[in-house]
Amino acid sequence: MTTTTTGFDRALQHLVVNYRWVFASFFLLPLSFLYEVWSYARNWLVFKLNTAPKQHNKKVQYVQRQVRQWKESGGNIPMCTARPGYQTMSLRKPKYKNTMYNIHVNLVDVLEVNEEKQTVRCEPLVTMGQLTATLNPLGWTIPVVPELDDLTVGGLVMGTGVESTSHIYGLFQHICVSYELVMGDGSVVTCSKENNPDLFYAVPWSYGTLGLLTAAEIKIIPAKRYVKLHYQPVYTLDDAVGLFAKESKSKEHQFVEGLMFSKNEGVIMTGDMVSFSKGETINEIGKWYKPWFFLHVKKFLKKGPGHEVIPLRDYYHRHTRALFWEVQDIIPFGNNIIFRYLFGWMMPPKVSLLKLTETKAITDLYENHHMIQDFLIPVSALKEAITVSHKAVEIYPLWLCPFNLPNDPGMVHPAANNEEMYVDLGVYGVPKTGNFDAVKTTRHMEDFIASVHGFQMLYADSFRTKDEFRQMFDHSLYDIFRKKYNATEAFPDVYNKVSKAARI
Ligand SMILES: Cc1cc2nc3c(=O)[nH]c(=O)nc-3n(C[C@H](O)[C@H](O)[C@H](O)COP(=O)(O)OP(=O)(O)OC[C@H]3O[C@@H](n4cnc5c(N)ncnc54)[C@H](O)[C@@H]3O)c2cc1C
Ligand SMILES: NC(=O)C1=CN([C@@H]2O[C@H](COP(=O)(O)OP(=O)(O)OC[C@H]3O[C@@H](n4cnc5c(N)ncnc54)[C@H](OP(=O)(O)O)[C@@H]3O)[C@@H](O)[C@H]2O)C=CC1
Ligand SMILES: CC(C)=CCC[C@@H](C)[C@H]1CC[C@H]2C3=C(CC[C@]12C)[C@@]1(C)CC[C@H](O)C[C@@H]1CC3
């Protein structure tokens, strides 16, 4: 009996793992498209009726009412947002949502584009796709646009965001001007660098454990229509690291990004916004029939250095269609030219739908035979980090994205007193080394990160113990504000939201 079940399980596992593309292509893609049409129509209507700013206060009052109800109910279990786990931009689903008191924060609108102040005020569920579609036609953009369309302002403020402009502007938190929060006692508090600065610095990386975000004011900068992007192939690790560090530190170009295709081969990209493209051909890399961006970049290893002009929004969302390179494991022929022309317009399958329909076999596969991690380390440690990653997992491409880390108070800052250039080393894929053990290998890499005063992005699994976690992330300001605003009762500790133990 047991043998039959195991055989059946194995067959089922084989089917769902190896033929997930059938389900993804014929069911998830059309469903993702319908979902997209619905949200596009809704956004359009909201804008036309111009109701969003008027509704904001009412929606905040609704959040406050729920917090008061929580208190009246005894306030024994901590609160978190009611956003379903399958919608979060992470490999895992948060287990704690099942046991904690869920607060509905249905705040989805861009509230105001203030051209005079050069800010945009957003509700927390505004997505990056929605924001660039709003701002770019008006000639504006936010300085750091994390590249996946579905990332939300709330998640990026409470967690973090990084992009190829971060070597100039820093992380997502560094382009924020103010936050509006509903605290654990139901009061509404605003904070900025000028007003309540300590709370302002304590919010990023707190993962919703200080208060519930109801609005964020974010800087905007003028946008041009295109990006002129230079591709510089490199053929040794020293050249890759040397060129990447030079371009990041010089800040000569608005965009800097690197993709390593093996330990010694990569392409370093630098770009700048340009207004028009006289005499240049425009490559609309965002069009459905265009090759996946990372494979397009790889071609420059053979072709040699080159440049091209790309529409701004296509550039911003360049990694969306292939979810960096993760879609190749789900729809292996997704970059085939026939597939692209016929079905490419529906790509990518919605991350939320992929998560919602994930079977146990697939969850196990991603848990035990896949790595999705972003290691944030000083640029000076990049060569060593690539070497450590190569030995441990041999995953390629690797994503290199520089960011300036100012010495601000809060969870994440450099070891010394000065700002420092860091790099996000993104490791996404199937380990090629024979001895991969999800826990041991990740812990080994985390130890290295900690040894160079680096950090781990917390949408990904952290295998740190609580003490190790508190050593990696400076909790001094966080602890003060947890006490001051009674958050210790109202919300869980950040570790209990982000550690592997808190996630399915
Ligand atoms: C001044 C101004 C204020 C606005 N205020 C609000 C507001 O208060 N609340 C609100 O919700 N919206 C607001 N919007 C946003 C706007 O209604 C939506 O973004 C709309 O869907 C974009 O329409 P468009 O025809 O201008 O898009 P385009 O500029 O034509 O968009 C370009 C492409 O972006 C894609 N796209 C559009 N929306 C999304 C998305 N959400 N995710 C991913 N891709 C997308 C489409 O595929 C489209 O092909 C505002 C826009 C403006 C200009
Ligand atoms: N390029 C980049 O920078 C990328 C970044 N990411 C990561 O993805 C995550 C963002 O994903 P997304 O799906 O948008 O967000 P999530 O739903 O994953 O939210 C992330 C955290 O923020 C908290 N949070 C979100 N909104 C609020 C709010 N209004 N009030 C209080 N807390 C809130 C959530 O709390 P709760 O658990 O209570 O819901 C959760 O702990 C970030 O952690 C980011 O670092 C991922 C890919 C790319
Ligand atoms: C640029 C930064 C900082 C991070 C990029 C991370 C992404 C590569 C991952 C974020 C969420 C991930 C998920 C998946 C792939 C990798 C991400 C997009 C899946 C789609 C993989 C297949 C699973 O069944 C569902 C996953 C959901 C989350």
TrEMBL record:
Its cofactor is FAD. Residues 47-223 form the FAD-binding PCMH-type domain. Pfam families: FAD_binding_4. Keywords: Cholesterol metabolism, Endoplasmic reticulum, FAD, Flavoprotein, Golgi apparatus, Lipid biosynthesis, Lipid metabolism, Membrane, NADP, Oxidoreductase, Peroxisome, Signal, Steroid metabolism, Sterol metabolism, Transmembrane, Transmembrane helix. The chain crosses the membrane at residues 20-38. It catalyses: lanosterol + NADPH + H(+) = 24,25-dihydrolanosterol + NADP(+); 5alpha-cholest-8-en-3beta-ol + NADP(+) = zymosterol + NADPH + H(+). Its EC number is 1.3.1.72. It is an enzyme of class 1 (oxidoreductase). GO terms for molecular function: Delta24(24-1) sterol reductase activity; Delta24-sterol reductase activity; FAD binding. Homodimer. Catalyzes the reduction of the delta-24 double bond of sterol intermediates during cholesterol biosynthesis. In addition to its cholesterol-synthesizing activity, can protect cells from oxidative stress by reducing caspase 3 activity during apoptosis induced by oxidative stress. Also protects against amyloid-beta peptide-induced apoptosis. PANTHER family: 24-DEHYDROCHOLESTEROL REDUCTASE, DELTA(24)-STEROL REDUCTASE. This is Delta(24)-sterol reductase. It comes from Gryllus longicercus.
